[in-house]
Amino acid sequence: MPGHFFSFEGPEGAGKTTVITKLTAFLKEKGFDVVSTREPGGIEIAEEIRAIILNPLHTKMDGRTEALLYAAARRQHLVEKIIPALESGKIVLCDRFIDSSLAYQGFARGLGVDEVLSINQFAIDKYFPSLTVYFDLDPQIGLERIEKNQSREINRLDMESLSFHNKVRQGYLQLAERFSDRIVTIDASKSIDEVFDMTVTIVMEKISRR
Ligand SMILES: Nc1ncnc2c1ncn2[C@@H]1O[C@H](COP(=O)(O)OP(=O)(O)OP(=O)(O)O)[C@@H](O)[C@H]1O
Ligand SMILES: Cc1cn([C@H]2C[C@H](O)[C@@H](COP(=O)(O)O)O2)c(=O)[nH]c1=O
């Protein structure tokens, strides 16, 4: 039986990585076979593309180049890691996926959500996540959280203006309405434990429905 493909989305510092780490341990403890991964990245080629996209020195990068690089990294990640995991029945937890491109490049960068959706449909074919948990947070709070986190390197996208990050959030909120059958919104301003508990409820409900 094919596995489950779940993605986790939200602005910088919303708590995705923190919750995915805890959720992976929780699901493994329950006996599930889990692969947790991230975008851009997750496999060697895509991590190399990530380093190019997020290099703070690449200030000249064109918006469409950026969108295409994210889509290329996604394609390789899907083919090399996500599809094989799903075909062997695993649960895939992915830190960001297509909705990041729609919110950041399509909406905030102004390339157009439908235009970015179309290049990503070429990249991912039928492989949309069956569930996307969107961690909704005021970007100002998220940026303050990552500034406090000394181990987190500041990348080229983090360095965008607050108004860019506010547009990212607006983009996500529109996506959550448009794809309401897939995207579930969580209030990520709550404590880590509360956000984790809400995520577990949503994910377990989805798993048990099959
Ligand atoms: N609910 C929360 N309340 C307060 N602090 C939090 C919460 N969730 C995460 N944090 C802290 O905020 C920082 C960012 O968290 P995390 O790396 O999980 O976010 P993220 O969504 O993965 O960020 P990014 O996408 O920018 O990498 C970490 O220092 C983490 O401990
Ligand atoms: C997948 C994807 C990501 N982004 C942006 C979002 C973040 O600013 C960085 C990734 O950094 P993180 O610490 O791993 O969250 O890249 C994007 O703009 N478009 C995308 O498709």
Automatic annotation (TrEMBL):
Q: Where does ATP bind?
A: 10-17
Q: State the gene name recorded for this protein.
A: tmk
**Which InterPro entries does the entry link to?**
P-loop_NTPase, Thymidylate_kin-like_dom, Thymidylate_kin_CS, Thymidylate_kinase
Q: Which reaction does it catalyse?
A: dTMP + ATP = dTDP + ADP
Fetch the PANTHER family from UniProt. Answer: THYMIDYLATE KINASE, UMP-CMP KINASE 2, MITOCHONDRIAL
Keywords, A to Z, come to: ATP-binding, Kinase, Nucleotide biosynthesis, Nucleotide-binding, Transferase
Any one GO BP annotation for this protein: dTTP biosynthetic process
Q: Which HAMAP family match?
A: Thymidylate_kinase (MF_00165)
Protein name (record): Thymidylate kinase
GO MF term (any one): dTMP kinase activity
The answer to whether UniProt assigns keyword NAD to this entry is: no
The similarity comment for this entry is: Belongs to the thymidylate kinase family.
Task: Give the source's domain of life in one word.
Answer: Bacteria
Q: What is its EC number?
A: 2.7.4.9
Positions of the Thymidylate kinase-like domain: 8-197
Organism for this UniProt entry: Thermaerobacillus caldiproteolyticus
